[in-house]
Amino acid sequence: MSVKQDRTGVRTPAQLEQKYNFGKTFSEMLGLINDNRDKVDKATSSLQDEITRTSTELSRTTEEVYVQAEKVTELADSVTTLSNEVEMKLDANAVNIAIKQEMANGVDRVETESGYRFDAEGLTISKSGEQMENKLDNTGMYVKRSGEEILTANNEGVAAVNLHAKTYLIIGEGEGRSRFEDYGYFRTGCFWVGG
């Protein structure tokens, strides 16, 4: 072996100890290396265990997120279905059926928080603290303001207090009709409309 090939010029453990003297013998150095290797192996094993544990927890969390997302989707579908059912029940026939079903169950009066009352007297719309009260039954429609009847529409005709026609007031039928309307400033015109 030439000098170029053996750069250390050291051939035996004793020569190594002499050349690289760290205050420890070669066998002591090998022992330290082995101890450090064991520590590195333990740290590596511990790190691998931690990675495995974290991966497992992450998998569980991901599964829980998917389960929660499915529950949210199911809840949204339920809300949509319920919304569609409510829309289907909001026609006049469904309200009538619902009222008949409640009446069949022994309920003879239905009242809402917004002031609607269905009972043997008909439909009454009135809220406490408000001036207006509306009543609708099989005889007609009656509107009261502060207890005074201001509009009645029944089989005898229409009676109103303080009637305001915005454009025309037409009286009569057929060819003998007349029409009242605004006619200039502070004037009213009455016109015969017919053949």
Summarize the topology:
Blueprint: H1 13-19, H2 26-89, H3 92-104, E1 110-111, E2 116-119, E3 122-126, E4 132-137, E5 140-145, E6 148-154, E7 157-160, E8 168-171, E9 177-182, E10 188-193
Short structural summary:
With about 200 residues, this protein is of the alpha+beta class.
| Inertia-based shape | rod-shaped
Task: Give the structural class.
Answer: alpha+beta
Give the topology string: H per helix, E per strand: HHHEEEEEEEEEE
Q: How are the strands of the largest sheet arranged?
A: 1-2-3-4-5-6-7
The percentage helix is: 40-55%
Global mean pLDDT: 77
Keywords:
single chain, 195 residues, alpha+beta, seven-stranded antiparallel sheet, 3 helices, 43% helix, rod-shaped
Describe the structure.
With 195 residues, the protein is an alpha+beta fold. Among the domains are: 13-85; 164-195, no CATH class. The chain is built from three helices and ten strands; from the N terminus they run αααββββββββββ. Strands 1-2-3-4-5-6-7 form a seven-stranded antiparallel β-sheet, with no helix packed on it. It has a three-stranded antiparallel β-sheet with strand order 8-9-10, with no helix packed on it.
